[in-house]
Design brief:
Elements lengths: L2 E12 L3 E10 H18 L15 H12 L5 E8 L3 H4 L11 H17 L6 E7 L7 H19 L7 E4 L8 H18 L6 H16 L10 E5 L10
Parallel strand pairs: 1-4, 3-6, 4-5
Antiparallel strand pairs: 1-2, 2-3
Helix pairs in contact: 1-2, 2-7, 4-5, 6-7
């Protein structure tokens, strides 16, 4: 039986040194449940605004905690975070398209490709994915299409030419119109500080970071026994293990 999954992803630059890519993973049924809860919170707290890490404030701190709880209290949803150290010589020297001048989009495409690999886990023919990154990650939609093509080709090479597309659809979404990308943004902001060991200047953000860390400790595994939050560090694609 083939299972259908979705991932809602966002990115952020942290302390000018790190590029973080993170996303919420769930089935279509869990997506409906998560959406319903986020809609309820908007009504409860009167939230008409976009929920983003950059907008965390003392006034709306309780709302942001409840927003994060939608993920941490869900028994099935998971979060994947890929950390790229831009000072790493391997990143600086990365040339994903051989014999071509490397652009910023080329680097981002390589990073997003690896993010999907670590998020999806072991190569298997029993899962299909719908991928929704935040709009604006790449400068052109053609870059996203290239990642989708290369990813599906990787799976066909590993699992056989008769394998259907592992990624059913990869489509950029405007975060202002998608609450799950907004949820991913808030989690990404908080968890980024925890991963690199930094402390936010804002007291409200410090409190939200601590709250999210406790959320991870409260439910480290989901209902299926899988890690609720996955943190991976980028490696040179030539050294990446597909196992």
């Amino acid at each position: 039986m083939i299972n259908e999954y979705e991932i809602y992803a966002d990115e952020r630059y942290h302390a000018r040194r790190y590029l973080m890519v993170g996303g919420i993973m769930c089935t279509d049924k869990r997506r409906e449940s998560l959406h319903e809860r986020l809609i309820q919170l908007r009504k409860e707290f009167g939230l008409a605004r976009e929920m983003r890490w950059a907008k965390v404030s003392r006034q709306f701190l309780d709302a942001y905690k409840a927003w994060a709880d939608v993920f941490f209290k869900d028994r099935f949803a998971r979060f994947s975070l890929l950390v790229i150290d831009k000072m790493d010589p391997a990143w600086k020297q990365l040339q994903p398209r051989h014999k071509r001048r490397t652009s910023q989009d080329d680097r981002l495409a390589s990073a997003f490709y690896q993010f999907l690999l670590v998020s999806f886990g072991k190569l298997t023919d029993m899962k299909r994915w719908w991928v929704y990154p935040d709009q604006g990650f790449f400068s052109r939609d053609t870059v996203l299409s290239r990642v989708e093509f290369l990813f599906n080709r990787t799976y066909k090479l590993a699992l056989g030419p008769k394998t259907s597309r592992i990624i059913r659809l990869m489509q950029a979404c405007d975060s202002k119109a998608e609450d799950l990308i907004q949820l991913a943004d808030v989690l990404l902001g908080a968890l980024s500080y925890n991963v690199v060991g930094d402390i936010p200047v804002s007291k409200a953000r410090r409190e939200l970071v601590d709250y999210c860390v406790k959320g991870m400790q409260w439910m480290p595994k989901n209902q299926k026994g899988l890690d609720k939050v996955i943190v991976s560090c980028w490696v040179n694609p030539e050294q990446f293990s597909y196992q």
